[in-house]
Structures are given as structure tokens and as C-alpha cells.
Amino acid sequence: QVQLVESGGGLVQAGGSLRLSCAASGRAISSYAMGWFRQAPGKEREFVAADTWSDGTTYYADSVKGRFTISRNNAKNTVYLQMNSLKSEATAVYYCAAPPRSGRVVGIRTTTAYDYWGQGTQVTVSS
Q1: Most buried of 53, 82, 85, 119 (most Cβ within 10 A)?
Q2: What is the full DSSP assignment across 86-99?
Q3: How far apart are CA 44 and CA 90, in angstroms?
């Protein structure tokens, strides 16, 4: 079983920054793609960012491109989401996700591509 634990959320003013962490256990993430999603109150869970293990290709939602950065430290089995220039619409619970198997992930931007989810960490951006 894979366990994912997010941390680093909190309250920040608009324009500020936060770095989220996702610590994985039960599996080495070095051979797996990893993703970040978020869910605002009353809204569907939406894709934020993902990266592949093989060539380091990264994917971002248009709404965060240029401001958010996904990265990983395989030695620490941890994935990060650096969020800069935060806007009030970024307020949501942020989830880390892992796919069921290694290798290429079909539909890497969709929730159905992932079997394992963390408990989420709240990010609140005040305007």
C-alpha cells in the first residue's frame, strides 16, 4: 500500500508563496509519475500539476503555469509544489496523488489516472 502525507498548507496573503510537500511511504516514487490536485468548496477536484519519472516532463494547469512548480526529491521520497504569486482563487484543499503502477500514465491530468491520494492540506489565500 502507498501512503501519501501532504504538509505545508496554511494562510497566506495574495501575492505570497507556499511550498507544499508530499511524503510517500510504501513505495519508492522514483519510478512513478506524481500529481497534485486541488478542490475548492463546492467544486470538482481539479488538476494542478504532475511530473513523470522517466524524463522529468512536467504538466501544469493553465491557471497555474508560470507560477507553480512541481519537483521531487527521490532520495527523500517526497514531491513538492512550490506556489508563487498566489491568488485568492487558489484557496482549496490540495491533494498529492500517485498512479497504480510505474511507467507512462494515460490521462495524467485526470483524477482517474491515480489510485492513491493523501488526506489533503488546506491552502487559504486572503485578498
Answers
A1: 53
A2: --GGG-EEEEEEE-
A3: 14
Below-50 pLDDT ranges, the chain? none
For 79-97, the pLDDT digits (tens) are 999 999 999 999 999 999 9
The three-state secondary structure class of 31 is helix
Answer for the pair 97, 4: CB distance below 8 angstroms, yes or no: yes
User: For residue 32, what is its C-alpha cell?
Assistant: 512513478
Q: Where are the beta strands (DSSP E) in the chain?
A: 3-7, 10-13, 18-25, 34-39, 46-51, 58-60, 68-73, 78-83, 92-98, 116-117, 121-126
| Contact status, residue 125 vs residue 91, Cβ threshold 8 Å | yes
Instruction: Read off the C-alpha cell for 74.
Output: 527521490
Cell numbers placing 62? 493553465
Output the nine-digit C-alpha cell for 24: 510517500
